[in-house]
Structures are given as structure tokens and as C-alpha cells.
Amino acid sequence: MATGKSDGLKSSFDLAMERLAAREGPLRALSAAQKSALAEIEQKTKARIAELEILYGQKVAQAADPDKAMALKQELQDRLARERERAEADKERVRGGES
Question: How many other CB atoms sit within 10 Å of the CB of residue 72?
């Protein structure tokens, strides 16, 4: 029994990669500099998120009013979302995307 693409059968992975390439274009290999920049963005984002969680955790713990604590938690979620969005935009720029 033949395996691979010679018999016309494709794995689920191959099919998924074809659909991805059809939808988003061919995948590009990243250079070492791009990989390094992406890792640095990821590291800085994780550090910033940890910093925000500690800062807001302290504020929530000190809040006497439950409504104030809830508002602080919501503010934290908003700031975390902005940090993640910023990181993704930075990563797209490094990858050579449109952002």
C-alpha cells in the first residue's frame, strides 16, 4: 500500500494546510531576526500582563466597596485586552503583515 501523496490521499493536516493557504495565501518562513523579535514581543507582553495583574490585584484587595472592586476588575480586563491586541499588531508588523 502506497503512502503519502503519491496515491492521491492526503492527511487531515495536508488538507487543513491547503485550506489555510487558499484562505490566507502561502505561508512564509520567518528569518532568525523575525523569530527573535516575535519572542521579545511575547516576553515583554507577558511581563506587562503580570505587572498589570499584580497592580490591579493589590488595588482590588484594598477596595472596600464591592462595586469599586468590580470596576477595577473590569478595568484590568480592558487593559489586558489592549495589551494583547497591541502585541498581536506588533507581531503582524514583524511578520510583514498589513497592521
Answer: 19
Neighbouring residues of 90: CB distance < 8 A, sequence distance ≥ 6: 41
CA of 69: how far to CAs of 48, 75, 96, in Å? Answer: 21, 10, 41
CB 94 within 8 A of CB 37: yes
Burial (CB count within 10 angstroms: exposed 0-12, middle 13-18, buried 19+), residue 79: middle
Of the pLDDT bands very low, low, confident and very high (cuts 50, 70, 90), residue 96 is confident
Exposure string over 6-31, b if 16+ CB within 10 A, otherwise e: eeeeeeeeeeeeeeeeeeeeeeeeee
Q: What is the pTM of this model?
A: 0.69
Convert the pLDDT of each residue in 67-94 to its tens digit.
999 999 999 999 999 999 999 999 999 9
